Amino acid sequence: MPKMNLSHFEASILFGLVISIVLGVVTKKTDKERLHYGLYCFGCFVATIFGLGWMMWLGHR
């Protein structure tokens, strides 16, 4: 099996994508609701990743 060398950012985005898909599929009943909720969750994950990244950057200055 080939190894994947992901940066921390890429691994975080991949994690957010997978979790968003699972949350959308498991928690909603219609396809439209699943898509909207999955996109909303993914957006929240990405916003959190950037927010925490900026906080860490500011904390290490």
What's the mean pLDDT score? 94
End-to-end Cα distance, whole Å, is 40 Å
Fraction of residues in helix: over 70%
What best-fitting shape do the alpha-carbon axes yield? flat
Order of helices and strands: HH
Major beta sheet, specifics? none
- Please identify the structural class as seen in this structure: mainly alpha
The oligomeric state is single chain
How many helices does DSSP assign?
2
Unreliable residue stretches: none
Strand % is: under 5%
Total strand count, please? 0
What Rg, in angstroms, do the CA atoms define?
A: 14 Å
Description:
The protein has 61 residues and is mostly helical. Helices cover 80% and strands 0% of the residues. The chain has a domain at 29-61. The protein contains two helices and no strands. The longest helix has 29 residues, at 31-59. The radius of gyration is 14 Å and the shape is flat.
Outline the fold blueprint.
Elements (H helix, E strand, L loop, with lengths): L7 H20 L3 H29 L2
Helix pairs in contact: 1-2
Name the features.
0% strand; 80% helix; 61 residues; single chain; mainly alpha
What is this structure, in a nutshell?
The protein has helices at residues 8-27, 31-59. It is built from 2 helices and no strands.
